[in-house]
Amino acid sequence: MPNRYWWVILTYIAMQLSGAIFVPILVHIFPNHQVEASIYYSIISFTIGLIIVLILMKPDMELSQTRSNWLTSNVVGWSILGVFMAYFAQAIATMVEINIFGIKAGSENTQMIMEITRTIPLFAIIPAVIAPILEEVIFRKIIFASLYKRTNFFIAALLSAFIFGIIHGEPEHILIYASMGFVFAFLYVKTKKIIVPIIVHMTLNSISVIAQYSLTPEQIEKIEQQWNQVQMILIGG
Fold first, then answer.
1. Distance (Å, whole) CA 223 – CA 191
2. What is the pLDDT at residue 69?
3. pLDDT tens digits for 84-126?
4. Would residue 136 show up in a list of annotated catalytic residues for this protein?
5. What angle do CA 34, 35, 39 make, to 5 degrees?
6. Is 173 a catalytic residue?
7. Fewest CB within a 10 Å sphere: which of 83, 91, 123, 192?
8. How many Å separate Cα 214 from the centre of its chain?
9. What is the pLDDT confidence band of residue 137, given thresholds at 50, 70 and 90?
10. Euclidean distance between CA atoms 123 and 104, whole angstroms
11. Looking at 28, 108, 115, 168, which residue is catalytic?
């Protein structure tokens, strides 16, 4: 694995852990705006992290551009199909979690993101744009691809998807995150372009943010109940 990939991983880790150092400092400086200070720091740290990662990955981007254009009919087609594939995989994983493992539907991680976004709408740029780029570069371009060279698709996709799920801090929903990781890995292998899983990941997150931002908690709960009823019908419950 090239040294720049290790620097990308270290940048991502440093970005995630830096809040433990700098947020308390900002909170001390702005005691009357503690929540806002921590949110704005997240936006700034993720943006800086993305810039550093893109600089480190510049040789890969230049190589991809020399091979073919980034935006082609193949990219557009697989991106659209990938969105439906990801939703289908997520639906299957959700049904398995609910009906086999008895795990309650809903993501605390998503709810937390939406609460922060409602406080400062600019925060939406992280889940909608920045995070998908960083995560696909690290988990598919670097981790999955490195494993894929040494093992088969299933093992590489399983390991990278497992790490992808754990990093989101919701081990009870590891199946959902892992199913999405499998779809993203498949799209990357099928198209040989990391831009495809990035577009699909960004689309899914953006739809989730926009939909939940425009709905009240009561409306979201009602939709979840209706979705659970549909799932029960589909499995013959």
1. 34
2. 64
3. 999 999 888 888 888 877 777 666 777 777 778 778 888 889 9
4. no
5. 120
6. no
7. 192
8. 21
9. very high
10. 27
11. 168
Burial of 142 (0-12, 13-18, 19+ CB in 10 A): buried
d(CA 63, CA 65): 5
Task: Tell me the residue type at 61.
Answer: M
Pick from 169, 178, 165, 161: which is nearest to 111 by CA?
A: 169
Cβ atoms of 191 and 208 within 8 Å: the answer is no
Q: Is 195 exposed, middle or buried (0-12, 13-18, 19+ CB in 10 A)?
A: buried
What does the alpha-carbon distance between residue 86 and residue 193 come to, in Å, rounded to a whole number?
17
Which amino acid appears at position 66 of this protein?
T
- In the chain, the amino acid numbered 42 is S
Dist. CA 4–CA 54, nearest whole Å? 11
pLDDT in tens, 164-194: 878 877 777 888 888 888 999 999 999 989 9
CA distances from residue 226 to 37, 83, 97, 222, 234 in whole angstroms, order as listed: 38, 22, 17, 6, 13
Catalytic choice (97, 135, 136, 201): 135
**Phi, psi of 170, rounded to the nearest 5 degrees:** -130, 75
Q: Where do we find the tokens 């779809």?
A: 183
Residue at token pair 């990955």: 57
The secondary structure of residue 33, as a DSSP letter, is G
CA–CA separation, 33 vs 188, rounded Å? 42
So what's the pLDDT on residue 237?
Answer: 44
